């Protein structure tokens, strides 16, 4: 990514790395004020104040700790009730913490006032923001002389739980980018659409991502004098994916990526600029949505929010807090809908002519991920619901599931950000050996480590390393440091002879000004000469999973014999077979692929109405 972004890195506690669908650079979040006129932000008392509580009347400002900083809330009290709650200031994630009719800033204040209780449920998928708001209200209650413990125990009246059956032309499991794209496309073709979503908010992994899209030959590239076209993009992606790629699928994706971005732009998505996946790789074709650029997370809402609004305006319905867990089969084997289970245990059945699975990947499923030894001990921040249940549901009706040879894994330091900020110093594997040109896209480095006996790596540095993330890592107590390479090797459990020989060879190449081993540019050859040495551990973090359901070019789900399962379609991460190899080739591809195949699935499913 652009080097100027690195200068924005905050060297301190904010260096903790947040890893989502496309890791790029870290940066401190900007504090923003919640729009005071937004419906749901300010809520007046709507329930009788019969809780027996006593307050000192007035307005008090409480504070809680959110995902990215303080959440400040103004709470107004009468002598016996909470009468008004205003989320005054926050820096939460757009599309998760705020921005929709289902997000905490818009929902939770009203629920607390209506129930006169702090026992209201958290919104799944946005629990940190919910806890922050409740924490801020608790603070204000204490200031007003109220009893927080009593208020937490006030019962919240809920509608009586009961099973429900809905009728639709098209039903979709999952309200991520693929499911929403499918829903919008189906609705635009005249279908009545219902989406069943596991969490309490939409967006899936996309909302948590950097909000980047991959396309070539775009007007935004032209504005930055970048020459590119779909054929060039196809050739690059094919070169990375190799034999795992379905050429026809990839060609269709490459040829339509720009059109799909224009489609999103019509809904309200705004593109800020274009940047490279790494400064060493051209042409630049990573498109940042508004406010993004070099950020690791928190900008996917710029894509999701306008999609949700468009879907709802088109008459679509989203059923939240419901896990789709069974496909409905007709006697002839065709799929005629699905059923799901709500958090309260009741069931929702949706009868439909076309059914689309868009449930995301399986990075949260430790058992499925266990087949990738290089990811052992991995961390992930994809939604907790990404457990591969869509694969299980489809396999139960005869769908073909492909176990891909890889998943998107990056190796980095979670405390400093080293590994994803274009640091180009010496990186070794767990054997103490150098295995790659470090001056390249982080996933190229990751795959090289994976293929060379490692589920981790080490960035070997001294005080002369120019990278700010490395300099920060050197200040941390948990970064191993030693006065000799041999001693350092012992501290990290690496063969000391191997590491010593690696460092000696690397320094010789640096002195010669030519990397004869891996071809790294001379200006990126950073010698490691002491007098003190450090080893920054690079651990695996997983995001996008590959493979999954096998589909044709129009998103029909296939059985092991290559035959379509009538009425069943799939799109997005649950069905990335043929689109990826064993390496993630470029930021924005997963989201872009979800949009393209989601639209295909929606269009095809709508034709069955």
UniProtKB/TrEMBL annotation:
Pfam family, one: FAD_binding_2
InterPro entries in the cross-refs: FAD-dep_OxRdtase_2_FAD-bd, FAD-oxidoreductase_2, FAD/NAD-bd_sf, FMN-bd, Succ_DH/fumarate_Rdtase_cat_sf
Keywords, ordered alphabetically: FAD, Flavoprotein, Oxidoreductase, Signal
Gene3D superfamilies, alphabetized: 3.90.1010.20, FAD/NAD(P)-binding domain (3.50.50.60), Succinate dehydrogenase/fumarate reductase flavoprotein, catalytic domain (3.90.700.10)
GO molecular function: FMN binding; steroid dehydrogenase activity, acting on the CH-CH group of donors
Transmembrane segment boundaries: none
Ranges of Low complexity composition bias in the record: 26-41
UniProt key word Transcription: no
Reaction(s) the record says it catalyses: dihydrourocanate + A = urocanate + AH2
Domain FMN-binding: from-to ranges: 66-144
EC number: 1.3.99.33
Signal peptide, first to last residue: 1-21
Highest taxon of the lineage: Bacteria
Gene Ontology BP term (one): steroid metabolic process
GO CC entries: membrane
Cofactor: FAD; FMN
Region (Disordered): 26-56
Protein name (database record): Urocanate reductase
Organism, as annotated: Hungatella hathewayi WAL-18680
């Amino acid at each position: 990514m652009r080097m100027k972004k690195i200068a924005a890195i905050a060297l301190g506690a904010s260096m903790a790395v947040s890893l989502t669908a496309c890791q790029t650079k870290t940066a401190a979040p900007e504090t923003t004020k919640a729009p005071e006129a937004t419906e749901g932000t300010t809520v007046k008392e709507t329930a009788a104040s019969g809780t027996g509580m006593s307050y000192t009347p007035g307005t008090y400002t409480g504070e809680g700790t959110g995902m990215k900083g303080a959440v400040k809330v103004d709470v107004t009290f009468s002598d016996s009730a909470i009468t008004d709650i205003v989320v005054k200031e926050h820096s939460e994630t757009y599309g998760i913490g705020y921005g929709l009719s289902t997000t905490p800033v818009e929902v939770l204040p009203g629920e607390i006032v209506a129930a006169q209780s702090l026992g209201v449920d958290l919104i799944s998928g946005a629990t940190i923001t919910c806890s922050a708001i409740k924490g801020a209200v608790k603070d204000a209650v204490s200031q007003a002389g109220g009893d927080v413990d009593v208020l937490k125990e006030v019962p919240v009246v809920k509608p009586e739980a009961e099973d429900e059956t809905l009728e639709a032309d098209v039903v979709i499991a999952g309200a991520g980018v693929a499911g929403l794209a499918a829903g919008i496309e189906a609705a635009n073709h005249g279908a009545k659409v219902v989406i069943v979503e596991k969490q309490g908010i939409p967006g899936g992994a996309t909302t948590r991502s950097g909000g980047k899209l991959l396309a070539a030959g775009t007007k935004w590239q032209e504005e930055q004098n970048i020459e590119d076209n779909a054929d060039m993009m196809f050739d690059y992606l094919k070169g990375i994916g190799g034999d795992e790629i379905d050429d026809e699928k990839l060609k269709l994706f490459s040829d339509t990526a720009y059109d799909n971005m224009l489609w999103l732009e019509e809904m309200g998505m705004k593109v800020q600029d274009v940047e490279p996946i790494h400064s060493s790789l051209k042409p630049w074709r990573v498109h940042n949505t508004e406010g993004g650029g070099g950020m690791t997370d928190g900008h996917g809402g710029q894509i999701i929010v306008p999609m949700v609004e468009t879907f709802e305006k088109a008459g679509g319905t989203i059923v939240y807090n419901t896990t789709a867990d069974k496909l409905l089969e007709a006697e002839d084997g065709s799929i005629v809908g699905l059923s799901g289970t709500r958090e309260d245990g009741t069931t929702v059945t949706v009868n439909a002519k076309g059914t689309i699975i868009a449930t995301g990947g399986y990075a949260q499923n430790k058992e499925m991920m266990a087949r990738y030894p290089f990811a052992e001990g991995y961390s992930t921040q994809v939604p907790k619901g990404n457990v591969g249940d869509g694969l299980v549901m489809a396999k139960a009706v005869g769908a073909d599931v492909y176990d891909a040879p890889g998943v998107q894994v990056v190796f980095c330091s979670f405390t400093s950000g080293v590994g994803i900020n274009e640091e180009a110093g010496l990186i070794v594997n767990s054997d103490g050996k150098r295995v790659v040109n470090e001056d390249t896209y982080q996933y190229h480095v990751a795959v090289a480590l994976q293929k060379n006996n490692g589920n981790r790596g080490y960035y070997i540095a001294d005080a002369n390393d120019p990278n700010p993330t490395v300099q920060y890592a050197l200040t941390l107590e948990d970064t191993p440091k030693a006065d000799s390479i041999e001693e350092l090797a012992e501290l990290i459990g690496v063969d000391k002879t191997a590491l010593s020989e690696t460092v000696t060879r690397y320094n010789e190449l640096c002195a010669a000004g030519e990397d004869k081993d891996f071809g790294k540019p001379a200006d990126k050859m950073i010698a490691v000469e002491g007098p003190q040495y450090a080893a920054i551990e690079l651990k695996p973090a997983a995001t996008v999973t590959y493979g999954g359901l096998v589909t044709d070019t129009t998103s029909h789900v296939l059985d092991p014999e290559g035959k379509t399962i009538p009425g069943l379609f799939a799109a997005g991460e649950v069905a990335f077979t043929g689109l990826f190899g064993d390496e993630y080739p470029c930021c924005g591809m997963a989201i872009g692929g979800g949009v393209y195949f989601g639209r295909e699935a929606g269009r095809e499913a709508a034709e069955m109405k």
